[in-house]
Amino acid sequence: MSGWDRFATLATSFTHDELSYASATHAPADSPKDKDKETPILRIAGEARSRGYELVCVPLTTARWKERWADMCILAGEGGGGEGEREKTVEAERRAERWRMSPSFLREEVTMSRLDEAEGTIALISDWLQLDARDDWVRHDSEIALRQELAYASYLNIHTAILPPPRHRAHVTSYARAINACLKSVPYMQLSIRLPIYDPPSTSTSSVSTPQLVVSDLPVLPRKSKAKKAPEDELNATWEMWDIVRSVCDYNPRLTLTLDLTPPLPTTLGVLSKWTAEPVQHIFLPASTFIANTKGYPVLPKGTQSFVRQSMAHRPIIIMSDVRSGTHSKGGESAYSQYIRHLEKSSPVVQAALKAGTVENFAQGYQDYLQAPLQPLMDNLQSITYQTFERDPVKYRNYEEAIYNALVEWPASDRIVICVAGAGRGPLVARSLLAIQRSRRPAFVYAVEKNPNAFVTLQNRQEMEWGSGVQLIYGDMRSIEIPEQADILVSELLGSFGDNELSPECLDGAMRFLKADGISIPCSYTAHLAPLQSSKLFNETRMNKDPSKSAETPYVVMFQNVDILSADGGGLGGRCGPQTQECWEFEHPRKDGVVDDRGLPITNSHNTRSAKLTFHIPHAGVLHGLAGYFEAVLYKGVGLSIHPQHKDRVSKDMLSWFPLFFPFKDPLYLPSNSELQVSIWRLTNERQVWYEWYAESFLPVFSAPLPGGEDHKTPTSSHDPFFASTTTHVAVPSPLIDAVDSSFSPVSGGGGREEGGRGCS
Amino acid sequence: MSGWDRFATLATSFTHDELSYASATHAPADSPKDKDKETPILRIAGEARSRGYELVCVPLTTARWKERWADMCILAGEGGGGEGEREKTVEAERRAERWRMSPSFLREEVTMSRLDEAEGTIALISDWLQLDARDDWVRHDSEIALRQELAYASYLNIHTAILPPPRHRAHVTSYARAINACLKSVPYMQLSIRLPIYDPPSTSTSSVSTPQLVVSDLPVLPRKSKAKKAPEDELNATWEMWDIVRSVCDYNPRLTLTLDLTPPLPTTLGVLSKWTAEPVQHIFLPASTFIANTKGYPVLPKGTQSFVRQSMAHRPIIIMSDVRSGTHSKGGESAYSQYIRHLEKSSPVVQAALKAGTVENFAQGYQDYLQAPLQPLMDNLQSITYQTFERDPVKYRNYEEAIYNALVEWPASDRIVICVAGAGRGPLVARSLLAIQRSRRPAFVYAVEKNPNAFVTLQNRQEMEWGSGVQLIYGDMRSIEIPEQADILVSELLGSFGDNELSPECLDGAMRFLKADGISIPCSYTAHLAPLQSSKLFNETRMNKDPSKSAETPYVVMFQNVDILSADGGGLGGRCGPQTQECWEFEHPRKDGVVDDRGLPITNSHNTRSAKLTFHIPHAGVLHGLAGYFEAVLYKGVGLSIHPQHKDRVSKDMLSWFPLFFPFKDPLYLPSNSELQVSIWRLTNERQVWYEWYAESFLPVFSAPLPGGEDHKTPTSSHDPFFASTTTHVAVPSPLIDAVDSSFSPVSGGGGREEGGRGCS
């Protein structure tokens, strides 16, 4: 793996002791050219870079600052005592007030003062600050100190600051409020919340007892010596803290996470998978997290290993800390980095991304990017766009196979007529001819295309390649006539959600070309949904120009920073369906439809659909949208699928379609073990087709007495027969949404169609 | 009670039978002048008006329309059968398709066709339409029919249409989606959802069996013959249906409710009180709801009586139906209306509103109106504004009492010095003089005022009324000096939330005038909160010009269309506080504060506050904001209070302050028996003071096995010691909010202050 395709960036963090030692042993640079050794920080940062770290993390402040702050802000808070005591307190309070009025550092209270020292440096904010202390004054003064530190870091042009973790669930809203205020007051800088993945107290790197122990009446960090494994609850609780912080900060894109992996992780991803949907920018890995392998070299525990491998997809900055203190007997400092590079190389996501021919490789650069939908009917596509899709190695192979099978199984006949409806630059015509050749059946191909530019390419290919076995017809399949009816109608009008590029409506028009006993390839397709969480996509949706409209249309997206919230089955009485659920189906030719004299449907009512799906949500999460997929049966056993659980069986490595993303305007919190009901409609009027979608969350409630209050009755019955007597309605989001106002006309020629983008364009 | 101050508007609805009878017996108008008798509808509407009804409700369509619709849309849906049967089905389907393409009525399918017939008429949409049928086609065609009916009503210039109720909890999202589409397609018209207050099936007025019974596989309206009383669950379920409909319709202000009170109501309001927060425009009361009193006259059951009395506050339209069929033996048709007028007259809210001197009377016209806050420090108030507040009969009486008590209890002294800080046009100066007179203590009054215009009035009053016992001082209390320090400092700087007009900051400046052992009137004040629901206030907040800003500032509001969601105590372990809870307190003079040479605080840090409150929510509801109140101790037992549970004891009929309303940007659904945690902060920097607030909902979770799914563990433990092992986090709203950017400067003279409006201005 060469440098440019690395997924992880390595950083190392310095301790206060290392900085002190560097200062104490600092000798002025040997020559005036050694600019980068002029100060202790420059020297040790330079040394770290020469050992392969791309970034360094430096504590912004020194112990002197902590002493002064505690002296002012804790002593003043103490109060009481004798007269002398009292005078000292008043003096401390006076100093504190003067500081609050105009917060500033003394030189020896900060570690850096030069721009070159701060370059490429991540600042570690004082980790003893308690923005969520129980004590009002400690909270208040911690916030002033935090702003002071961030303002100083900003002065030094530092781009990223890592903030101390929230510690108290009860006061996390105060923590969150302070962070939000900082995001507003400090421009540009990324604020990254350091968050121990569970059990926060265990991970304090500060060896000195922290100020809170002086002031709090309650031991703030009640560290029980626990069993090693994190219970799921604790992992959930960590995420819940984060969820509150980022909600209060309104999903500010400058707010990121530094996941502190000090405690060992469980070996199954389960609840951990939700971190894939969060902006984890840094992973903090102290030497103490590593265990020694049989040879004494440092390796990570199994659960942490697989989590780090998985995280590579998000190209994290991995901060190695305390790696120069000789925690492990073998390998020295470089062993830790080498091990991380080993995990990177052996990460399945990295391997998939680097292997040619995979969707992951094909999609590089497109992850989580909201694509403007293609409109192949309204807009005439460019040749380059056709070319991109024609390169799909799987899609056309399956089409050929389907046509071949249909021909082979076709009853004896002198001449089988194939009609390609929407021929584009001709890939399906070519595949039809190959299938005819292989099947040795007598057949003739009509190719219908309405894009005048692509029609030139078709004429070219007919002359150069196809000859007399093919007849080209120029025009819209919904209005033209063809010389004779076909036995087999072949089309490729499918979108990421199946019907979302108006395949049903177009084929309604083309069915006039098909004999009564003819077949359509594809003969049916289904649309599928799963609920997802992704702060990334939520923010991308909001950043669209018109925020009120941006959440009202589905997008084509290659998912990465996304977590699917549902799990198979579950729920009370097992009424929840699988992780991904089918909404509806379309079949061609359609049965028993009433048509007008020209063979066209009178209205489009028969193409409306609706579905109500119930999902089991095992772990608490936030619903940001729905993932949409399709499956199609081309002919009997041959199909196409982007359904996450089926695609590898049906059409592995097919590249043409990324999933559809149906966004919600407002996030909806889903508790652990809740049920999510999703309603989705495919709607139509005389000009348009669009989707609307809606979600409700239900939490199973058990009959149990509620102590206290006048109201002892638990709501155990409901009107809803479906939900019988076991659930209560929990929360309703707002999004009922119209899609873009694209025009659609099933009877006249010039109409547009619904949003239809899919893969890369 | 004269006509103009009536609270209820009476309407009557006609049945199909009455309309048929009117048509059958219709004789052309006697003379050309009898324009209003030209058609049967005009005649019976005219007769109804002459009997005292201000409005009439008329079914928009006839039985003919229902027949045709069922013939097309139900027959076509049936399918199957023999060849002849099949042909009939195809023919029906063809007719249905032609109708769907271009929906229209035949003359005999509608009841009205002239503008004058529709004038003052509320249209009843076909009540057999099933927008939430199980059957896709019935739903689809019901929606087309609904749009057709609304379009026709709109053509006739009808302003209000009453829609059939949702019937299926499982498909209410489909119902809601259809209503939302209608709101968008029909401009101006009010759509009012008819909603039986519980158990929808019992209230169908249509005597013919409805189409759904033909198509649904499941009996849609399983009417059990129940005990008379509605269980709370059913009342909650009705509200839940409504909540989904209006949420999907995004709180469209043209969407209202027609509460159908056919079933008898429980006698305690309890869960019914939530309807006070909803846009109940009509109350539907059929004769069958009335019971006969001992004399045989119609009266309402107790529960319904008190609900109707309570509803008068919202000035409902009461629709009397079936009142001409002789249901009751005595009184005839007029007995029903007379009874409603009797309830109106005896309604406590009507009585309070009509009685001079009550807050309700004073506030007429101001209910639920978001007031632009007063800025008495930044803006110099107008004389008329002072006059309004000076008329408060209670506030100044209590001030005088407090000053009197303070004087009487004052230690022996030659001369007691009173300083009125912020004298305005002089009401507190006058009251001080009265108190001095009554107490017979030797005292002198300084009156400080910074409004140059009011200072002219003060000079006038000194010359005309006060004489030498008063010395006027012009200037800002935060910067001027006065000749001698005072024993008693009197001020009236309180806002609706106590400290929200910056009383703490102003008094910090004025404390320089007070002797070390002096007292301040008021000597302390507290701020209080309660969570509230109100679609009205939610919409009012959103309608402000800049929607992103409009939810970020508190407003002064006289609440009416509002329901307080909390109840006293309750919760697991009784950890929830009372319905209204105290946030924080300010005391004057402040103790042990560090000040600078001039006696002013160095920073404003000591005036920051924060509170975390836990409320018990007995019935499901939607949180739209917080109600803010204050209480003040003027001197010992004398105070001022707008706290809803205390105000009548402390300062009954005080008019000067309406409550403060802290809005939330996004509604938060609160389940029954949940707990609401509210965080609120009073924050400050060198220029400003503002509030931020945040709410989280928790639902108690019991340990019980969860059947099904891989995940059998109920989350029973949490990190949070406060919430111990019994709750799970349910939902997080977004609102963390800065108040308006008003400038505040505690040390210099020219600063502005925070929003400070309160009562009428």
Please, could you describe this protein's structure?
The structure is a homodimer of 761-residue chains. Chain A folds into 3 domains: 3-62 and 110-215 and 230-354, TIM Barrel, CATH 3.20.20.150; 383-521, Vaccinia Virus protein VP39 (Rossmann fold, 3-Layer(aba) Sandwich), CATH 3.40.50; 528-579 and 601-731, Distorted Sandwich (Hnrnp arginine n-methyltransferase1). In chain A, 30% of the residues lie in helices and 22% in strands. In chain A, the strands form 5 sheets. Chain A has an 8-stranded parallel barrel. In chain A, strands 16, 17, 18, 19, 21, 22 and 23 form a 7-stranded antiparallel beta sheet that branches. A 5-stranded parallel beta sheet of chain A has the order 13-12-11-14-15, with helices on one face. In chain A, strand 14, helix 18 (503-510) and strand 15 form a beta-alpha-beta unit. Chain A is elongated, with a radius of gyration of 32 Å. Residues 200-228 and 702-761 of chain A have low confidence and may be disordered.
Q: Kindly report the CATH topology of the largest domain in chain A.
A: TIM Barrel
Largest interface: A-B, 95 and 93 residues
Task: Compute the separation of the termini of chain A in Å.
Answer: 28 Å
Counting helices, strands and paired strands, the structural category of chain A is: alpha/beta
Largest sheet of chain A: 8 strands, parallel, barrel
CATH architecture of the largest domain in chain A: Alpha-Beta Barrel
Strand order of the largest sheet of chain A: 1-2-3-4-5-6-7-10
Strand percentage of chain A lies at 15-25%
Any idea what the CATH superfamily of the largest domain in chain A is called?
Divalent-metal-dependent TIM barrel enzymes
User: Tell me, what's the shape of chain A?
Assistant: elongated
Overall pLDDT of chain A, averaged?
Answer: 83
Q: How many structural domains are formed by the residues of chain A? A: 3
